[in-house]
Amino acid sequence: MISLTDTQKIGMGLTGFGVFFLFFGMILFFDKALLAIGNVLFVAGLAFVIGLERTFRFFFQKHKMKATGFFLGGVFVVLIGWPLIGMIFEIYGFFLLFRGFFPVVVGFIRRVPVLGSLLNLPGIRSTT
């Protein structure tokens, strides 16, 4: 099992609450207050989990500047009060930022008993 420091545990909690508030804000017809809270908690949690310096290095790499611009621009647009447009920017930036992790996540999910069998069905296997 992976041992986490207390700071990383706090970061996991902040990130989890951030994802919850983002999801709940989208369920409640893009409530801008919940989305803003979710954005702040998600970014703060990420900084707690991987550290402040590594967070800056991750977001501000030269080849990820477009993705960072869309993601942080979307956060800003949500904070100023346009939640639908901001979430579109954020989702696009999120997929650009984390696209390198998606094959790892799919590989992990393939090893989970029920979900792995679903991902290995003939029609789905070719798309993932």
From TrEMBL:
The keyword Membrane applies. The chain crosses the membrane at residues 12-30, 36-56, 68-85. It is found in: Golgi apparatus membrane. GO terms for biological process: endoplasmic reticulum to Golgi vesicle-mediated transport; retrograde transport, endosome to Golgi. InterPro entries: Got1, Vesicle_transpt_Got1/SFT2. Keywords: Golgi apparatus, Membrane, Transmembrane, Transmembrane helix. Its main location: Golgi. It is a multi-pass membrane protein. It comes from the Eukaryota. One of its GO terms (cellular component) is cytosol. The keyword Secreted does not apply. It holds the Pfam family Got1. May be involved in fusion of ER-derived transport vesicles with the Golgi complex. Belongs to the GOT1 family. This is Golgi transport 1B. It comes from Colobus angolensis palliatus (Peters' Angolan colobus).
